[in-house]
Amino acid sequence: MGFGVTELLIILAIVLVLFGAKKLRNIGGDLGGAIKNFKTAMKEEENAPEASAKTTAQLDEKSGTTIEGQVESSSEKKEQV
Description:
Elements: H1 5-19, H2 21-47, E1 54-55, E2 58-59, E3 66-67, E4 71-72, H3 74-80
Antiparallel strand pairs: 1-4, 2-3
């Protein structure tokens, strides 16, 4: 049992009466902006895997020298899994 065109138009009319056109426009704009930012962030993550490399080296608090560690990128972690 699905919704037909008539039912969808009635629901849209009720939503417009309850919230108003301005509020719905603001919600739509916010939702569109959030989706656009998400897509941009996903593309940046795919293009720069070296930027997300993490260092496991730590500093010795007492002497200030570096303790041995290794650097792993996110692509190396994916290959290990």
